[in-house]
Amino acid sequence: MPFYAGARISEVVALDVDDVRMSRRIGELRLYGKGGKVRTVPLKPQLRTALAAWIEQRSAWPGAGGPALFLNHTGGRLSATAASDIITAITATARLEDPPTAQVFRHTFGTTLVRADTDLATVAELLGHSRIETVRIYSRPTEADKIRALEHLTVDE
Questions:
Q1: Higher-confidence residue: 11 or 36?
Q2: In this structure, what CATH number is given to the domain that contains residue 63?
Q3: How far apart are CA 80 and CA 86, in angstroms?
Q4: Residue 133 pLDDT
Q5: Cα 97 to Cα 36, 68, 88, 93, distances in angstroms
Q6: What does the H/E/C string look like for 89-154?
Q7: Does a structural domain hold residue 157?
Q8: Of 43, 49, 34, nearest to 5 (Cα)?
Q9: Is it the case that residue 157 has pLDDT exceeding 80?
Q10: What is the mean pLDDT of the chain?
Q11: For 112-124, what is each residue's pLDDT tens digit?
Q12: What span, in angstroms and rounded, lies between the C-alpha atoms of 85 and 83?
């Protein structure tokens, strides 16, 4: 969810089953952000498929009758620490040099949208930022961006 929906880990673990709305072709998440702000984020097909699979598996878990979407092994709501530990374990299995965190996935979501020329107001809304200025961090140029920019300079010969 941090990568496909731009969700903060605290928003992910706060989700209830009713916050996920899906039909056969579309879906959306209702996320509760900082300051009690609520936003709706469309579900990318890959996330919709994964959520549908989890919701089906969830029915066999302890605590499945409760509202929490993500459950721990005793049937309670999954904590942010436990969710972060799960992400760390999954990314460690991939043997990445610098295993990403949930925040890195969220940052990648924002950076990917900005680099795809998505309007900054849209990116801010999807990320739950109230100010567009906050989204500017996702548009910081890389060294490759700087080198490409210099290629536009004319050269007299």
A1: 11
A2: 1.10.443.10
A3: 10
A4: 86
A5: 36, 33, 12, 11
A6: HHHHHCCCCCCCCHHHHHHHHHHHHHHCCCCHHHHHHHHCCCCHHHHHHHHCCCHHHHHHHHCCCC
A7: no
A8: 43
A9: no
A10: 91
A11: 999 898 999 999 9
A12: 5
Please tell me the total count of domains within the chain. Answer: 1
List, in sequence order, every residue forming a beta bridge with 22; answer none if it has no partner.
Answer: 27
Query: Amino acid identity of 129?
Result: H
| Burial of 104: CB neighbours in 10 Å, binned 0-12, 13-18, 19+ | middle
CA distance 120 to 38: 19
Place of tokens 């990116």: 123
Q: Can you read off the two tokens belonging to residue 23?
A: 């039909």
Query: Whose structure tokens read 């302890």?
Result: 62
Both tokens of 52, joined, read: 């549908």
Q: Which domain holds residue 90?
A: 9-150
Digit-coded pLDDT (tens) for 60-114: 999 999 999 999 999 999 999 999 999 988 888 887 777 788 899 999 999 999 9
Pick from 98, 112, 136, 128: nearest CA to 36: 128
Question: What is the pTM assigned to this prediction?
Answer: 0.84
